[in-house]
Design goal:
- A hairpin with a 7-residue loop joins strand 1 and strand 2 (about 30-35).
- Helix 6 (about 265-280) packs across helix 7 (about 290-300) and helix 6 packs parallel to helix 9.
- The two termini are about 35 Å apart.
- The strands form four sheets. Strands 1-2 form a two-stranded antiparallel sheet. Strands 3-4 form a two-stranded antiparallel sheet.
- The protein folds into two domains: about 20-80 and about 265-445, no CATH class; about 90-250, Helix Hairpins.
- Helices cover about 60% and strands about 5% of the residues.
- It has helices spanning about 1-20, 50-60, 60-70, 85-160, 170-255, 265-280, 290-300, 360-365, 380-395, 400-410, 415-430, and strands at about 25, 30-35, 80, 255-260, 320-325, 350-355, 435-440, 445.
- The chain is mainly alpha-helical.
Length: about 450
């Protein structure tokens, strides 16, 4: 007897679950099918990926991480599991460390080349100055040589002219004096000639030393240039690889599961993006991501019910379709086709579509672009979360109290059981507190309280 009662209880439970699965007729034509509750869904404490943070800070990539990432800053460093991110993070860290080392060495070599070029230019300038000084000295020397030539002619002429005779002592004295002056001038010119030759020689020696220094400098520069040329290909490759690895790690993390929450990071980010989008479109609404996430949890188990996956851009791997609304399932209405099968692939009857189970007509009248890609796709999580926000905020506002939230949930599916279940999930997700850790300008800081309603059902 006990066994029979237990069997009946299980059967009743299965029937009750089936009733929640079926799609009920919504006010305004929205269909909401309640999905079975997965045992692994939970919400706990938010935690930072300390290993990722340490790695990024150690190699100076925290700013780049924030710049490359497109997700909500509150989750830039949220701890996640799975997705094979550990190996990729280690690879990123290793290559970033290598890049840092290569950059230091490469910039050192570049600086050396600049210094050697500056030294060569300085030496060349000094050689030019010396050459200019030699040129000036050679002009002076040519003047002296010309004067010596004139003195030699004067001596020659005097040696072939008859000297004064007789009692003309004054003439004799004058001639002797002139000869003496010529001799003195010649001696002075010869002395100056030697001085200029020595001066020019010393300057030429300086030029020769400079030429030798420039040659040595050129040899050193050639060696440094060769080292830089050898280093450059690896440097350039790392400059490409590290940003690429950053982006790969970002994308890989999007598919990983957020520690303490049980959702993939891209799913969480989509809910946060929906909240942010509503802050722009309906700033007075105050809807929080937990409310949108609770709808997604009940409607499709965050698009996981049919075994599909969500890409890093929020795109479902396969279209998410509800049951055919032909009235054949108890508890569902008959809804004739309204879109020619464009969204649901059924030209006879409508089906709820996407992770948030919109009817085609409701989607067309409510949908907005949630990720700014210019496309509104019912099977994209970002577009879906934003559209859920529009639907709820346009019907009940503000959504900052438990009472108003419940009223909004009832517009989504006019069922107290449905509203109760969604409210329970809001309370569950409230336990995952995103108000503390944020990324602000590349720094890890404490964020202010997010505020808003928290369901207490």
């Amino acid at each position: 007897m006990f066994s029979s009662l237990a069997g009946l209880a299980r059967l009743a439970g299965q029937l009750s679950k089936l009733r929640r699965v079926v799609v009920a007729v919504l006010v305004m034509g929205l269909i909401a099918g309640v999905s079975p509750v997965a045992a692994d869904d939970h919400a706990g404490e938010f935690s930072i990926d300390s290993e990722l943070l340490d790695a990024l800070e150690a190699v100076g990539l925290l700013d780049s991480w924030v710049e490359v990432g497109t997700i909500d800053p509150r989750t830039s460093l949220v701890a996640v599991s799975g997705g094979e991110i550990d190996d990729l993070r280690d690879q990123l860290t290793d290559q970033a460390v290598e890049l840092d080392t290569v950059r230091v060495e490469g910039r050192r070599l570049e600086a050396m080349i600049v210094s050697l070029d500056e030294l060569d230019a300085e030496l060349a300038g000094s050689a030019q100055l010396l050459a200019a000084e030699i040129a000036v000295a050679e002009i002076s020397l040519s003047v002296i040589d010309s004067a010596l030539a004139d003195a030699a002619i004067e001596r020659y002429v005097r040696g072939h002219v008859t000297a004064p005779v007789g009692d003309d002592l004054e003439a004799v004295y004058a001639d002797a004096t002139e000869s003496t002056l010529v001799d003195v001038a010649v001696e002075d010119l010869l002395a100056r000639h030697e001085e200029f030759l020595d001066y020019i020689g010393s300057k030429q020696s300086g030029i020769d030393e400079i030429d030798a220094a420039r040659q040595a400098n050129a040899e050193i520069r050639a060696e440094v240039r060769a080292d830089l040329d050898e280093l450059t290909p690896r440097w350039e490759q790392l400059e490409q690889d590290v940003p690429s690895l950053l982006e790969q790690l970002q994308n890989r993390r999007m598919g990983a599961i957020v520690d303490g929450l049980g959702l993939s990071l891209v799913t969480l980010d989509a809910y946060l993006a929906g909240e942010a989008r509503m802050a722009e479109v309906y700033p007075e609404c105050g809807i929080r991501w937990q409310a949108i996430a609770a709808i997604g949890r009940v409607e499709s188990n965050h698009a996981r019910d049919k075994g599909g996956t969500v890409s890093a851009t929020g795109q479902l791997s396969t279209p998410f379709l509800g049951v055919v609304l032909d009235g054949s399932i108890e508890g569902t209405a008959t809804v004739l086709d309204t879109d020619g099968g464009a969204l649901d692939g059924d030209g006879a009857y409508d089906r709820a579509v996407g992770p948030f189970q919109f009817l085609p007509g409701s989607w067309r009248s409510t949908a907005i672009d949630g990720n700014g890609d210019g496309v509104i796709d019912i099977n994209n999580m970002y577009d879906g979360t934003a559209t859920v926000g529009v639907y709820l905020c346009s019907r009940v506002s503000p959504l900052t109290t438990d009472e108003n939230l419940r009223a909004a949930f009832l517009t989504y599916n006019f069922s107290n059981d449905y509203a109760d279940e969604v409210a329970r999930w809001v309370t569950t997700y409230d336990e995952f507190d995103l108000s503390r850790p944020v990324i602000d300008g590349g720094d890890v800081a404490d964020g202010g309280e997010l505020g808003g309603a928290s369901m207490s059902n």
